[in-house]
Each structure stands twice: as structure tokens, then as C-alpha cells.
Amino acid sequence: MKTLKAFGQGFETTNKKIRMTLYLWLANFLFSLLVLTPFYFILNKDFSRSLLADQLARGVDLLWLGDLIYKYRDFSSVLLGWFIVPGIFFLLLSVFLNGGIIGQIASQEEKVSLSNFLADCGKYFFRFLRVFLLSSVVFIFVFGFLFKIISLPFDLWQKNASTEWPLLFISNIKLLLLILIFSIIRMFFDYVKVRLVVEDSRKSLRTAVLNLSFIGKRFFKAWGLYLLVGLITFISGIVYLSVYQPLPKAGFMLFVAFVWQQAYFLARTWAKILFFSTEYHFFNVFSYKESIS
User: Taking the CA atoms of the chain, what radius of gyration do you get in angstroms?
Assistant: First the structure.
């Protein structure tokens, strides 16, 4: 019951902080625009109203694609750098914005102002950056080493398979395991961030250690809540793809497809806030219970 209560409270908080959804969407939209605009001008210069553009609109031809790759063969290092550097900045931007999200969720103020949101982003940035670095080490260890050990029985079974069906089944099982393990690690460090804000602590490593006990005592409740919000995100993705895929990508319908795409990004942003909101209320419910027991 307390888990459902946390979900209900998180849902209510997320809807009250709806202005924050717009702030996050705008930040991500402007960042994407900054990264992709140079490529638009390059492609528009070479392919606008060209035979190649007409060919690509009707379907990708491998020979034409090969010519395109050959033409831009010396541009690959520039492309790599252009994506790696913004990728790093995007991760830092996410860390920065997460501070504002959780800070405003924990705030007693009903309305979210841009100044207060940015103030919380700055206040928690370095604390969350340490959490990000710590979580990166954990992800590298788990998926670079531990997951390979977990996969050994499946790999052995896959090696001895005589038909394609065991291969397909094993691949899906491994993918499911990967997603579930990823969700557990992601959930754990979400609660570390929430705890840092609630307790106004600067000790990221100590908070992570304390969080092991908190999550360990009620793991399935916390994980069930996380997966419930994840299910909402998954369903929204299915709805988005089922509508977006059949839409013609030309003329006015291209604009419709773009609007639908941005609506989906708004829904994803709303779901991100819902993750943190439900975790915040879950932490408050059970940490209060611990304090009075």
C-alpha cells in the first residue's frame, strides 16, 4: 500500500511541476538544435533538389550510399569529434538538470520558477557529478566483467544449439537480463541523488553506502515502483512508434510527424520527472517509518 501511495503522490507532484517539463524539453531541444544545425547546412548544400536527394527519398541504394561515404571519407574524424564532445556535454547537462528536477520536487513551493530551478541545478551539480562518476565505474564493472560471467551458461548453451530457435531464445533472455540489471543500478543511484537532496548532504560515497541498507530492506518494493514507471514509459514509446511509423515524411505531414515527435519527447521528459517524484515520496515514506521505529 505504501508503494502505491508513493506512486500516487509522485504522479500528483509531477503534474504540479508541469512547468519543469517545458524547461527540460526546451533545454534538450536547443541542445539538439545546436548539434545538428551544421549537418543540416552541409547536407542541404550538397543534396537539396538533387538526384541523390530524390533517390534517398524513395529508398536507400547501397551504391549511392557508398558514393556518399567515399565523398565524406576525410570528414569522419570531424564527425567523430563533433559527436563525442557534444555527447560529453550532454551527459554533463543531464547531471546539471537532474539537480534542478529533484531540488524542485523536494521544494515546498507549488510553482516552479526558472530562477529557482537553475539555482538547484547549480547547487547539486558537483554532488551529482560525483554520483555520475561512481555510477559509471559500477556500470563498467557490471557490464564489462560481471555480466560476462553471468552470461557464460547462456553462451555455452548457445554454442551447443543445433537450431536457430535456442539462439533466438537465449539472445532475448540475455537482453532481458541486461535491461533488468541496468534498471536496478539506475534505480539505486537515483535514490542516492534523492537522498543527497533530502538530507542536504555533500558526501556522495557515504550516501551511496547508506543507500545499500535502505534499498536492501525493501528492494522489491522499490524496484516494483521503478518498473511501474518504466512500464508507462515503454507504453508511451509503443504508442509513439505506432503513430509515427505510418506517417508520410513529406510536405505538411512532415510537420505533423515533427510535432508528434516533440510530443513524445515531452512525454518522456514528464516520465523522467515521474521517476524522481515517485522515488522521492517512496524514500520519504519509508525513511519516516524507520525514524519512528
Answer: 23
Tell whether pTM > 0.90.
no
Residue 225: closest CA among 261, 274, 177: 274
Contacts of 160 (CB under 8 A, 6+ apart): none
DSSP state of 113: P
Tell me how crowded residue 284 is: count the other CB atoms within 10 A of its CB.
15
How would DSSP label each residue in 83-110?
A: HHHHHHHHHHHHHHHHHHHHHHHH-S-S
Quick one: CA torsion of 214, 219, 224, 226, rounded to 10 degrees? Answer: 50
SS3 42: helix
Asked whether the beta carbons of 131 and 208 are under 8 A apart, the reply is yes
Residue 251 to residues 38, 70, 254, Cα–Cα distance (Å): 23, 30, 6
Q: How many helical (H) and strand (E) elements, i.e. helices and strands, does the chain have?
A: 11, 0
What is the separation of C-alpha 209 from the centre of its chain, rounded to a whole number of angstroms? 24
Mean pLDDT for the stretch of residues 232-240: 93
Which three three-digit cell numbers place residue 249? 515524411
Q: Are 64 and 52 in contact (CB under 8 A)?
A: yes
Alpha-carbon gap, residue 203 to 187, rounded angstroms: 19
Domain boundaries, the chain: 2-292
C-alpha dihedral sign at 107, 113, 116, 120? positive
The DSSP result for 163-177, as a single string, is SHHHHHHHHHHHHHH
**Band of pLDDT at residue 50, cut at 50, 70 and 90:** low
Q: Which of 48-57, 79-88, 282-291 has the lowest mean pLDDT?
A: 48-57
Per-position b or e across 61-92, b if 16+ CB within 10 A of its CB: eeeeeeebeeeeeeeeeeeeeeeeebeeeeee
Q: What is the pLDDT of residue 60?
A: 47
